[in-house]
Amino acid sequence: MRTVALVHSPFLGPGSLLPLADELTARGHHVVVPDLRAGLRAARCHDGVADRFAEQTPDAPLLIAGHSGAGPLLPHLAARRPGSRLLYVDAGLPTPGRSWRDTVPTGIHDTLADRATDDGTELLLQPWHTWFDPSPLDSDALRWAVLPDEPRVPVRFLHEPRPHADEPPGAYLRLSAPYDAAAEEAATRGMPVRRLDADHLAPTRSPARVASAVETLARELG
Known about the structure:
Elements: E1 4-7, H1 18-26, E2 31-32, H2 45-55, E3 63-67, H3 74-78, E4 85-89, H4 106-114, E5 117-118, E6 123-124, H5 140-146, E7 170-174, H6 180-188, E8 193-195, H7 202-205, H8 207-221
Parallel strand pairs: 1-2, 1-3, 3-4, 4-7, 7-8
Antiparallel strand pairs: 5-6
Organism: Prauserella isguenensis
InterPro entries: AB_hydrolase_fold
Protein name: Alpha/beta hydrolase family protein
């Protein structure tokens, strides 16, 4: 299998994918987990994330596997690594020219923006796990993996249009019911799709199951 670049959601840190990285590494694969958080504070968030990705990944075609909110960023990242393949892991699909705000109900955006606080430089969202009641971090293992590097994301990230970029061949791994529609859309686009009866944080909670599905889809992508 190609080197796997596991791309964390902008709203989570790389720690959320380290259990999956460890499992894939134990199976003999070369895996990198770039830390993209600092890129979100760049003048243009998407370009900042792509710059950090390029700095921390091999200069070769990759399997770029993006979890959750990383999905719409993947073509922009792949432009830095021509010949790569994409894997959307319980993730949104690309919406070039549209922002995060454009793709969610207005009430969700307004609630998050109203709770933002200023760190002296700009408005920052509250940490992702606080958006939900009850918290999705329902075990010590999840809290240990996610909390130490969970970022505060600038509100302006929600408003920045996603870049236009060629979309390389990709596949879709559905882990939870809220991503059924994205999986169906991926199938209509001709992508290989695999569905697990798991949960959104399965890369942390159930890395062996997710790793097996990643291997299967990677073989289909070639």
